[in-house]
Amino acid sequence: DAELVSKGEKTFKKCKSCHQVGEGAKSKTGPVLNNIIGASAGNVEGFRYSKAMKAAAADGLIWNETEMAAFLAKPKKYMKGTKMSFAGLKKDAEIDAVIAYLRSVSGR
Ligand code: HEM
After folding, report:
1. What domains sit in the chain, N to C, each tagged with a CATH number?
2. Long-range own/partner contacts, residues 14-23 (CB < 8 A, 24 or more apart)
3. Ligand 1 centre distance from Cα of residue 3 (Å)
4. What is the ipTM score, two decimals?
5. Interval 12-54: pLDDT, tens
6. Is the shortest distance between the CB of 95 and ligand 1 below 6 Å?
């Protein structure tokens, strides 16, 4: 719902130092996150992923809500060797909200 999406937009401020979304978004320290929910991991054109992310992609990782929630809670624990230097989101509510926000944004 709209309230959750707006909460998620606030939570996304924690991601913005590295990630962009929306029309005209570009990869920076991290890859563009347009349409990331339901997408294959490690698949943004031109972004240089870690070996760990490439291996997960080769194993068929899809960013569904379950995988995304686990990754965002503890990135380095979820994926040993990821180059995403982010401690993680502590609250389940923040994770749910940011996922709702990511669902709501696309580059189109
Ligand atoms: C990768 C989400 C915060 C840097 C990713 C991926 C997602 C994601 C879904 C995988 C993308 C893909 O498979 O194409 C988020 C969210 C954040 C956040 C929702 C905030 C809650 C950050 C921050 C940084 C960062 C703060 C930089 C300090 C990166 C990098 C990668 C990445 C470098 C590539 C990882 C690798 O190749 O191992 N992020 N991120 N992220 N993120 Fe983040």
Report:
1. 2-104 (1.10.760.10)
2. 14/86, 14/89, 15/86, 15/98, 18/84, 18/86, 21/102, 21/105, 21/107, 22/105, 22/107, 23/107, 23/108
3. 24
4. 0.99
5. 999 999 999 999 999 999 999 999 999 999 999 999 999 999 9
6. no
